[in-house]
Amino acid sequence: MKTRLMTVLAMSFAVSAAVGCGKIKQQKECAEVIKTINAGVTRAKAANLSSPAGFKQFAEAYETTGQEAAKLSVTDPELKKQVDEYVVLTKEIAKAARDAAEPAKLPMARKEISAAAAKENALVNKMNTTCMRK
To answer: Is residue 85 a part of any domain in this protein?
Structure first.
């Protein structure tokens, strides 16, 4: 009986440890995603959007962020899907910002950037929700 109890306790500990390790991995993945996106936002905010050069800098900030996000190792399927969506969105924002550097395209590009920013906010909120549940 004592041996059986020890076996059950050992197995319970092993299952708890495995679940705990999975949770730690998810937390690390979430932290890396958040760190990557926040760094990109910081780079984008540094751009002066009152000049064509500023829009190009803004585009480069989003291109870099998208490239960095694409390289992240994310194993959680829900978070992975969201990161992939974010990578696509960074390309849309970068294209609109490059268009905005051309005076003739500026009005439409500003609308595209505003629409993409709304998508970005919604997507970041989804990622935060996903990470909070993990």
So the answer is: yes
Q: Contact 120/89 with Cβ under 8 angstroms?
A: yes
Residue 105: HSE in the Cβ half-sphere, 13 Å Cα cutoff: 13
In a domain, 99, yes or no: yes
pLDDT, tens digit (0-9, with 9 covering 90-100), for 75-127: 999 999 999 999 999 999 999 999 999 999 999 999 999 999 999 999 999 99
What amino acid occupies position 118? A
Do 37 and 65 form a contact (C-beta atoms < 8 A)?
A: yes
This prediction's pTM? 0.81
Domain count, the chain: 1
Which structural domain range is residue 64 located in? 28-133
Q: Tokens in use for 51?
A: 């000049």
